[in-house]
Design goal:
Number of helices: 9
Protein name: MarR family transcriptional regulator
Radius of gyration: 17 Å
Strand content: under 5%
Order of helices and strands: HEHEEHHHHHHH
Number of domains: 2
Distance between the termini: 34 Å
Largest sheet: 3 strands, antiparallel
Organism: Mycolicibacterium hodleri
Number of strands: 3
Helix content: 55-70%
Strand order of the largest sheet: 1-3-2
Length: 189
């Protein structure tokens, strides 16, 4: 198994916590055989898998331009400053939202989405696997625009909020930061 495929698989499992085996692609059998993943209906990382993932992420960061990664992350934070309150407000008011409110939320999210796509492209230039986040966010946005607003914030699927959170985690790590240091600085979200 190659390191890139192993990293993508282990990071997916880490970000999601537990993943249905049918949802996974990549060297699942190899990682199970190597003791990196627990083979169960809901796959999760083993302790050895966590250690291996830390190694793979460190190797990835070692070849990335640190200043460029920080610039991408800072650009992301600007857009995150609009997405975070929009999603939070939607979660508080969705049950009482009428058609006008739904349209307003989707229109604003579409504007923010257009702003983040170039940021994702820049991240993808640094680390190719990050470029897939644009397609995942597109898919969630279109499902919501198609009338299923659960694709905005529904946990356990690739809802906009879920994918956004995963992208945020990826960019924090790529920039060599942690969620704890981001919370201390007020940048986390």
């Amino acid at each position: 198994m190659n390191d890139a495929d192993e990293l993508a698989l282990l990071q997916t499992v880490r970000l999601k916590g537990r993943v249905g085996r049918a949802e996974l692609t990549g060297p699942v059998e190899d990682c199970v055989a190597a003791g990196l993943l627990v083979d169960a209906p809901m796959v999760r990382l083993t302790d050895a898998g966590r250690v291996r993932l830390v190694e793979l992420l460190a190797d990835e960061r070692a070849v990335v331009d640190h200043d460029a990664a920080n610039r991408v992350y800072e650009r992301f934070l600007v857009v995150n400053g609009g997405v975070k309150p929009l999603i939070s407000q939607w979660q508080l008011t969705r049950d009482a939202a009428g058609p006008d409110e739904v349209t307003a939320v989707l229109d604003r999210l579409a504007e923010l989405h257009r702003e983040v796509v170039p940021v994702i492209a820049a991240a993808g230039e640094l680390v190719a696997r990050l470029g897939t986040y644009a397609d995942r966010l597109d898919a969630a946005l279109w499902r919501a625009r198609d009338g299923d607003m659960s694709w905005l914030t529904r946990p356990m699927v690739d809802s906009y909020h879920t994918v956004w959170f995963e992208l945020h985690e990826e960019l924090i790590g790529l920039a060599g930061r942690t969620r704890a240091t981001e919370a201390e600085s007020g940048s986390g979200g």
